[in-house]
Amino acid sequence: MPELISHPPAFLDIRRASKSFGAGKVLDGVDLAVSKGEFVSLLGPSGCGKTTLLRIVAGLLNADQGHVMLDGAVISAKPPHHRDVGVVFQSYALFPHLTVAENVAFGLHAKGADQSTISPTVAKFLDLVHMSAFADRSVKALSGGQQQRVAVARALAVGPKLLLLDEPFSALDRKLRETMQIELKRLLRELGTTAVFVTHDQDEALIMSDRIAVMNRGLIEQLDTPDTIYRRPATAFALEFVGLSTRLRGKVAAVKGAGELLIDTAFGSIRANGNYLPGSSVLIGVRPERMAFGARDGANTVAAAIQDIVFQGSRIQTHFVSGIDEPFLLETGGELPARLAPGQQVPVSWSIGDTLVYPAGPSA
Length: 364
Description:
This protein has about 375 residues and is α+β, with helices and mostly antiparallel strands. It has 8 helices and 20 strands.
């Protein structure tokens, strides 16, 4: 008899959440379970439903169907201020007439905290976000990054069971955004805070998350660790949205033993592992850093003409002429082979195990 694996109950449990605005369905029966202390990102393009889902959890929107549970209690009918949920908005939503310390203390006053505990709590969280020296300063005098720190401190100071963050770094420049990502991840780990984070930035999600929910058209297409979502995306959309990829369209010509496919493409025959019938139209995906110049025994090898070479500091991307709308690129971390130039035809190879296969979309 197989051993039964016991999974801890979800700390945040969203069941069959649906929401429409007029004739448009924004959420279509979404399920999401988040463990205590976990950091989960909702990742997807604009309009996929991620912010709507966050606002339903926060109580700022009512779901048409479904329910939300937090720490074992149904909170779907509770008003926002009774949900024990902290929210950091994209705009920070700080009170401009209050000082930094007064902004952080605001939620504590609203909850009726004892006056003797408010000052030390404010001091603690300003210290955690490295803003102690700005306690008496007006928030209007702060930079974007400093305002973001204050917003996080204010949300955490009330000790919420759950922290929700709606693209809080989108207004920051790239260097500051990357710094804040690492700082917030460290802070939440130190506090053991459960958090759900909305972003359309794939790099941000990969850096910060314990798990990522890739959303598309009101549904979660894949919920998994960043490593799994990048290396083994479950759908063609996840492949395209998370990271760069070479994508080739083809048709299954034959199926050999042990599920090895022989796929005809514009670049010749390619082998892959999968479960498709002969004649099936498929999309082949390969991460560009898994590809290499030159032929290799036992690997897929094709000949392709160089279109452009793009230097990106620690990485170099070589783009090839594909003759179709799908990208064909190879990425290296070191120097390129000598005398490569646009227009040159070269062999490119990658392993069968790195070849991902999906049902082809309507453009195939």
